[in-house]
Structure formats: structure tokens, C-alpha cells
């Protein structure tokens, strides 16, 4: 509460510096933004503490320039205005106020116009104007109402979002920002400063007209790239620069009379605020939708991997039983050998070497299975597609053998790397291999051949080609197999190829299938080469 | 049984399993010889007559069940112990019906395998 009182006091002193000439009406009263933010971030049962703290801070801040009765009126009036605004904001746009949705920005903007207009009728300035007391030169009842309304609307639209958003902002996240993002933020700040200097810091005859519009490109940049927090902060920065220039008799606003100048500044701020904040909210909402879609896609990919692992489970169990059989038989043989006189150490050593080798083989099977089942966010790294093909064949070995399929693999030498998620690409290739094997169940045993070829395709792509001699794709509707839930199998979700294509698309590649001239189908998987890196591939995680 | 060491033919397409089972049999006093496929076994039967076969149920081209059938067609009667890496009850039933003395699941315990081999040899002698 001490921090709140100090913040309010400083904001009030700042506000005293922004006043209409010959008037008690402030151009902007930032202390109200502090009070509003405090109320919105505090439970209602504690509001009285906030109101008492800010009332005391207000009294101290204005004591030297305002009579006690007027200060008391201001305190009561501000408390009534901001409390009612906070109550309406709690009910209409909802809390927490993050300005991350169009609904919140629209509702907030409407409230920020309507409530100040209503509140204007309760202010001392209006009452004095009503009774023609201490009316500033050139002021009328209407201009007085307009000034008070715009003054408070400016606070709500320009200052309150900054205070609210930064008060809620998890500062530790700043440390997580990448260097690239920090550079971009620096460039944005510089561009806002630069256009602000041009628009508000040059002679009025230069600054009038077009330079004023120059402030919008950096503002739009911030809104698109840095969300509501960045947008609201940049808007306040532009407003501060406009005040700075106007105070130095620079910029376009000094060409008007003093009263018009202030009103024009306020209208300029208000006109800037809502569209920029709205754009930030629209972009933010869209990014959240895209994030949610990506998360769903990742979950779906994981689900299909789990389903594939389920289909492979009996083959994988078979894969594990082979090394386990060898390990057990070797160990039991060694136990017998070691009980004999004159132990054949060479034989025992050979046995132990085989045990270790078979143990590693079993660990690799488990590692591949685990990587397939892992539920991780996509993780892009440089990888060799021949390794992915090898892993897919290792995982599907049991299925291949049980299907009686002969596999022919052709790997072109010196293949470039691709950049991708090793688990997702393994999933795609594994799915194509398993599908190919299953499609050949009706093919005569000697003709069951699965051909895999990994080669360059042009200078841009690495191609994995998987050709089978199975039933082929639906004639004339070959692409239907990539539709979700399309399946010709008795089991399976019918999602494997659909997910596979979306994974490959996300990698900037292509996946399609076509029927062979004689029998079966050929699938083509194209992935862009990683020209940026020609070094060795990152070690596969499951091979550690 | 004669005094000579019993001859065991191990037929498995997986080299590590073949080698390990041969070592196990040898350690327990059996004379084991390994074959990479049933065809290789058939080709050797003119000059080699094992007392018991240890057959892998799943091998490319000719699995344990098919090998039993071919031996029966040839009129060659050698007791067989079938080992498998798959949980397949149908295959077990068919193998036992085809004359297999035992049907064991990998990984095969030494005691169970040797007991099955001894029973198979004992039953045929």
C-alpha cells in the first residue's frame, strides 16, 4: 500500500504539470490510472484500503496548489468515478483485463468513453461552469464538459492499460526473450523515438501533415509483434513525445490556440489508441488460435504414434525376445562353464561380449520405442534421412518379417542433411513402411517387395521413396488416402497418412502417393535440404 | 540312448540366438550344430542325423511348423522342440498337433529347454 500511495503521489504530481492554461482541468490525470489498476488488481473487500491510501496521497500531492474543499471534492469525485469504472469493468469485459481479445478492447474502449462523459457532470469544473464561476476565457459549458470527458477518457485509454498490463506482466519472462527478440525490441524503440522526433520535434510547418502519419508504421509493428503490452507502452511513448514537442513549441499541434492544441492532442491520442490496441488484440487472438491448433496437431501426432506403437507391439515384443533369449542362454552357459576345472576363459570372454552386444541391441529397441511414445513438443534439429529410414526399418523389422516382405534399401552416397523433428519424421516413414507391408498381405509371397530409396531430388530436396507391390491406391482418387479417417485396413484410425502429410508440410516438404504401372503404390516424401548446415548430424537422442 | 553325446540341430535365422543356444547345449554335454534355415538343415540330413531339433517357429520362407510338415512328408522322424518369440496359441496348438515334443516361448530358460530336449530324445529312443 505504501508503494501504491507513492505511485499515486508521483502520478498526481506529474498530472499537475499537465493543465489547461487558466483552468483547473488537467490535460491528463495519470493518478487515476494508478487507482484504477490498483482496484482491478485488488479483491473488493480490500478496496477501502486502496481508496484511503490514494486519498491521502492525493491530499498531500495537491495541498500546495488546491484549497482543501476542492481537494476533498476531487478525492470524492475521483473515487466515485474510478470505483464505478472498476465495478463496470469487472462485470463487462471481465477480469483479468489483458486486452488480448477484441471483446475486451471494444468493451473497455466503450466504457472509457461513456463513463468519463457521465462523470463530467459531477466535477467541480462543470458545476463552476454551470453557475458561470471562474470560467476560463473562451470556455463554455460544452467545452468544459468536453475537456473533462477527454481528460478522463485519455487516462483510461492511454495510461491505465500500460499500468495494468505492466503490473500483471511476469517480469521473469523478459529473461527468456531471445537475443533476436531483444534486438527487434530495441529497433522498435528506436523507430518510435525517430518518428516521434520527426513528427513532434521539428518545426510546425514541417511536422504538419504527413510526418504525423509516420508514427503509425512503428505502432503497427509493435502491435503485430509485441502484443498489447508493447502496443500500449508504445502508444504512451508516442503521447509523451507529442507532449514533449508541443511543450517546446514544436510539432503540428502548436499551430493552434492553446485550448485547441490540448484538445487536438487528446483527440490524437484517443484516435490512435483504440485501433492500435484492437490490432494487437486481433493478432494476439490469432496467434493463440494458431498455438492451440499446433498443440492439437502435436497431440494428434502423438496419439497416432501411440496407435502405431500399439500395432507394432507384438513385433516389438518379438524384437526384444531375441536378444533376451541370447543373453539368457549365454549367461546360463557361462555359469556352467565357470563351474568346471580349467575354465575356457576365451569362451567366457566371447560369451560376455555377446551378452553386452545383445543388451545394447535390446536397449536400442526400447530407445526407439520410447522416442516414438514420448510426448514432446516438436524439436527441430539437423538430421540424416538415411538414419530415420534405418530406425523405421529397425522398429518395423518384426512386422516386415511376419509379413514375409523382402526389403530393398538404396541410399545414395553423400546425402545432405534436412532440418526436422526426428520423432515426427520417424513416425511418417514408419507409417509408410508398415502400410506398405500390410498392403501386400494378398500379394504372392515371392513378390512381396518393399523398396526404399533415399536420394537427392534436384538441388533443393532429399527424397525418400517407398514402393510396395500391394493393393495400390484407389484408382483415380489416389489422394483420398491422405484424408483423415480414410482407411482400407480392418484396424487403425485412418489418420496415419493425414497426420504424415501435415507433419511433412510443417517441415516445408511434400508427401504424395501414386499407383505403380504393374502393381502396388509408391509414396514420395520430399524434404528441403538444410543448406545452412553441412556438418555432421546431431546424434539421435535414442542412440545415446 | 547310446553313450555318444546326443546330437542337437538348432535351426534359427537369428545368429545371436543360434550361437547362444549352441553354447548352452554344449555346456550341458550335448553336441549342438546350428543351421540358419530349415533348407540348410534338410540339405545336411543325408550325412547328419540329429537326435533332436530345436526349431524357431518363425523364419523366412520356412518356419518351424512348415519344417515339421516337410520332414513328415519325407518320412524323416526327428523329435522337435519348437521355440518362438510370439504369443500365438494357434501356432502352439498346430505345432504340438504336428508332432512337436514341446513348444517353448523365448527367452527360453535353460532348465526348460534341456528338460524338453531330454524328454524328446527319451521319447524317441
- The CATH superfamily name of chain B is Response regulator
Q: What is the global morphology of chain A?
A: elongated
Number of helices of chain A: 19
Shape of chain B: globular
User: What does the largest sheet of chain A look like?
Assistant: 5 strands, mixed
CATH class of the largest domain in chain A: Alpha Beta
What fraction, in percent, of the residue positions of chain B are helical?
A: 40-55%
Residue fraction in strands of chain B: 15-25%
Q: Outline the biggest β-sheet of chain B.
A: 5 strands, parallel
**Tally of alpha and pi helices of chain B:** 5
Measured between the Cα atoms of the first and last residue of chain B, the distance is 6 Å
* CATH architecture designation of the largest domain in chain A: 2-Layer Sandwich
Number of domains as seen in the coordinates of chain A: 3
Q: Can you tell me the residue ranges of chain A where pLDDT is under 50 for at least 5 consecutive residues?
A: 535-544
Q: What's the number of extended β-strand segments of chain B?
A: 5
The CATH topology of the largest domain in chain A: Heat Shock Protein 90
Most residues in contact, chain pair and counts = A-B, 26 and 24 residues
CATH fold field value of chain B: Rossmann fold
**Sheet/helix structural class of chain A:** alpha+beta
Amino acid at each position: 500500500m505504501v508503494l501504491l500511495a507513492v505511485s499515486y503521489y508521483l502520478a498526481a504530481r506529474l498530472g499537475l504539470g499537465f493543465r489547461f492554461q487558466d483552468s483547473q482541468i488537467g490535460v491528463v490525470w495519470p493518478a487515476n490510472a494508478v487507482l484504477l489498476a490498483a482496484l482491478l488488481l485488488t479483491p473488493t473487500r480490500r478496496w477501502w484500503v486502496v481508496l484511503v491510501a490514494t486519498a491521502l496521497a492525493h491530499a498531500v500531492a495537491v495541498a500546495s496548489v488546491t484549497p482543501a474543499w476542492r481537494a476533498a471534492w476531487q478525492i470524492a469525485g475521483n473515487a466515485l468515478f474510478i470505483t464505478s469504472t472498476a465495478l463496470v469493468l469487472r462485470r463487462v469485459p471481465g477480469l483479468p483485463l489483458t486486452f488480448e481479445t477484441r471483446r475486451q478492447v471494444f468493451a473497455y474502449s466503450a466504457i472509457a468513453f461513456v463513463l468519463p462523459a457521465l462523470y463530467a457532470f459531477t466535477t467541480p469544473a462543470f458545476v463552476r461552469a454551470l453557475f458561470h464561476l471562474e470560467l476560463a476565457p473562451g470556455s463554455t459549458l460544452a467545452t468544459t464538459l468536453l475537456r473533462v470527458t477527454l481528460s478522463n477518457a485519455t487516462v483510461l485509454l492511454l495510461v491505465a492499460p500500460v499500468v495494468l498490463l505492466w503490473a500483471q506482466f511476469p517480469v521473469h519472462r523478459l529473461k527468456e526473450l531471445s537475443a533476436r527478440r531483444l534486438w527487434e525490441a530495441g529497433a522498435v524503440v528506436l523507430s518510435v523515438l525517430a518518428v516521434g522526433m520527426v513528427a513532434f520535434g521539428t518545426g510546425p510547418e514541417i511536422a504538419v501533415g504527413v510526418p504525423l502519419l509516420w508514427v503509425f508504421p512503428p505502432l503497427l509493428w509493435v502491435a503485430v509483434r509485441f502484443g498489447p503490452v508493447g502496443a500500449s507502452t508504445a502508444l504512451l511513448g508516442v503521447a509523451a513525445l507529442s507532449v514533449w514537442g508541443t511543450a517546446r513549441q514544436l510539432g503540428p499541434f502548436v499551430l493552434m490556440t492553446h485550448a485547441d492544441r490540448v484538445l487536438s492532442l487528446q483527440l490524437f491520442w484517443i484516435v490512435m489508441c483504440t485501433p492500435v490496441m484492437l490490432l494487437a488484440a486481433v493478432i494476439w487472438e490469432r496467434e493463440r488460435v494458431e498455438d492451440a491448433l499446433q498443440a492439437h496437431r502435436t497431440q494428434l501426432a502423438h496419439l497416432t504414434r501411440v496407435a502405431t506403437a500399439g500395432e507394432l507391439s507384438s513385433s516389438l515384443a518379438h524384437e526384444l525376445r531375441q536378444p533376451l533369449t541370447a543373453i539368457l542362454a549365454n549367461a546360463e552357459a557361462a555359469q556352467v562353464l565357470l563351474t568346471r576345472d580349467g575354465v575356457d576363459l576365451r569362451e567366457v570372454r566371447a560369451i560376455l561380449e555377446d551378452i553386452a552386444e545383445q543388451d545394447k541391441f535390446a536397449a536400442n529397441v526400447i530407445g526407439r520405442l520410447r522416442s516414438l511414445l514420448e510426448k514432446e513438443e516438436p524439436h527441430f534439429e539437423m538430421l540424416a534421412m538415411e538414419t530415420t529410414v534405418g530406425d523405421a526399418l529397425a522398429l518395423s523389422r518384426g512386422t516386415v518379417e511376419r509379413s514375409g516382405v523382402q526389403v530393398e534399401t538404396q541410399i545414395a552416397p553423400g546425402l545432405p542433411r534436412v532440418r526436422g523433428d526426428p520423432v515426427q519424421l520417424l513416425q511418417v516413414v514408419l507409417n509408410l513402411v508398415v502400410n506398405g507391408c500390410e498392403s501386400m498381405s494378398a500379394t504372392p509371397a515371392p513378390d512381396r517387395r518393399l523398396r526404399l530409396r533415399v536420394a537427392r531430388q534436384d538441388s533443393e530436396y532429399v527424397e525418400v521413396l517407398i514402393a510396395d507391390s500391394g493393393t495400390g491406391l484407389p484408382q483415380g482418387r489416389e489422394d483420398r488416402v491422405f484424408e483423415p479417417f480414410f482407411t482400407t485396413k480392418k484396424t487403425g484410425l485412418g489418420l496415419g497418412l493425414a497426420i504424415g502429410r501435415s507433419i511433412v508440410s510443417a517441415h516445408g516438404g511434400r508427401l504424395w502417393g501414386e499407383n505403380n504401372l504393374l502393381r502396388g503404390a509408391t509414396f514420395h516424401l520430399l524434404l528441403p535440404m538444410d543448406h545452412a548446415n553441412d556438418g555432421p548430424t546431431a546424434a539421435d537422442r535414442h542412440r545415446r | 540312448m547310446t553313450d555318444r553325446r546326443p546330437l542337437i540341430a538348432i535351426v534359427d535365422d537369428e545368429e545371436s540366438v543360434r550361437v547362444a543356444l549352441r553354447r548352452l547345449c554344449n555346456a550341458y554335454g550335448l553336441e549342438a550344430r546350428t543351421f540358419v534355415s530349415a533348407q540348410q538343415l534338410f540339405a545336411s540330413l543325408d550325412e547328419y542325423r540329429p537326435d533332436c531339433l530345436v526349431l524357431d517357429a518363425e523364419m523366412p520362407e520356412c518356419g518351424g511348423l512348415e519344417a515339421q510338415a516337410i520332414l513328415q512328408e519325407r518320412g524323416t522322424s526327428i523329435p522337435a522342440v519348437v521355440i518362438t518369440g510370439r504369443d500365438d496359441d494357434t501356432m502352439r496348438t498346430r505345432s504340438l498337433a504336428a508332432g512337436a515334443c514341446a513348444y517353448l516361448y523365448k527367452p527360453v530358460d535353460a532348465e526348460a529347454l534341456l528338460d524338453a530336449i531330454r524328454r524328446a530324445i527319451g521319447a524317441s529312443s
